[in-house]
Design brief:
Elements (H helix, E strand, L loop, with lengths): L18 H16 L5 H8 L3 H14 L2 E3 L6 E3 L1 H13 L2 H16 L2 E8 L2 E8 L21 H9 L2 H14 L14 H13 L2 E4 L6 E9 L5 E10 L10 H16 L12 H12 L5
Antiparallel strand pairs: 1-2, 3-4, 3-7, 5-6, 6-7
Helix pairs in contact: 1-2, 2-3, 5-9, 6-8
Length: about 290
């Protein structure tokens, strides 16, 4: 390597970079993973280097605002420039645009229709649809408002949004349904619905089979933003005869991997000691185990 830190010999298909920046970047990654300020010795160990090697990098990072040192205890944390870059990055991300890239691959992988649902003024609303190449699939239309009680997308949002936000959709759902749940009984969190939503949170997904439409099943998994708030649902739907609706089945696993990746790209991280969002903690547990922690 030359004295300027540039690696001179790189594979033909790999762009040349500055190795010293990549080495120092390990310290930034360690802080981001820890989610809290760390003393020099612990930070260096997390980054896989000696404290004497880490210190000059931290001095330079401090000068440009990527790192800040607490004068009272000497711990190092992310600085104002790092925070500004993070906020700007999150503002530029469009959850639906990111998820649109993912659902085409999910439809191909699962062999079922996969849709993106967001929470609109009337409830869970389909905004993007990807269809599989198979001859037999269940169709969904853009703009469809999903029944809160009778669909996987509706149940998922009801489980993770505040109750006050869901009540208006419950009233609309009760007024428009032709099934068993009609009138005032359908416009409240009755014990049956409360138990169902608790199950959704416990499993980390919503599943319906032959509920509103005989012969049709669906699974929905949540995507969270950096604050741990649900921003959209990834929903797969297909014929019950060939649809794997198990919480540990191939469809759920494909959706779970995609939801975890999208949530990470939107800023949700594995919780550290400084993380105080219950939703974030629960999602991190589901990402590791495939099931909800509450």
């Amino acid at each position: 390597m030359a004295s300027d830190g540039v690696a001179r010999h790189t594979p033909r298909n790999q762009q040349r970079g500055i190795q010293s920046i990549e080495v120092g970047g390990a310290l930034l990654k360690a802080l981001a993973h820890a989610g809290r300020a760390l003393p020099l010795k612990e930070l260096a160990a997390e980054a896989g280097m000696a404290p004497a090697k880490a210190h000059p990098y931290l001095v330079s990072f401090s000068k440009i605002g990527l790192i800040a040192q607490d004068a009272s205890n000497g711990r190092y944390g992310l600085g104002p420039l790092a925070l500004q870059l993070g906020h700007i990055s999150l503002q530029l991300l469009d959850p639906v645009a990111l998820a649109t890239e993912a659902i085409e691959a999910l439809a191909a992988r699962t062999g079922h229709t996969v849709a993106i649902a967001v929470w609109g003024s009337r409830g869970a609303t389909i905004v993007r649809v990807a269809r599989p190449a198979s001859a037999v699939y269940v169709s969904m239309r853009h703009g469809t408002v999903m029944s809160l009680r009778g669909t996987a997308s509706g149940l998922l949002f009801a489980a993770y949004l505040p109750r006050a936000q869901v009540l208006a959709a419950l009233r609309d759902d009760a007024a428009g349904t032709t099934g068993r749940r009609t009138g005032a009984a359908g416009a409240r969190f009755d014990p049956e619905l409360a138990a169902r939503l608790e199950e959704v949170r416990r499993e980390g997904l919503a599943c319906v089979a032959d509920l509103l439409l005989p012969g049709v099943s669906a699974l929905a998994l949540p995507v969270f933003d950096a604050r741990g708030t649900i921003v959209l649902a990834l929903t797969a739907i297909g014929p019950s005869a060939v649809f794997d609706s198990r919480s540990e089945g191939v469809v759920a696993e494909a959706l779970r991997e995609a939801a975890r990746d999208l949530s990470t790209r939107l800023g949700l991280r594995e919780p550290g000691p400084a993380t105080d969002s219950p939703t974030a903690r629960e999602f991190a547990g589901r990402a590791a185990t495939g099931r909800a922690s509450r």
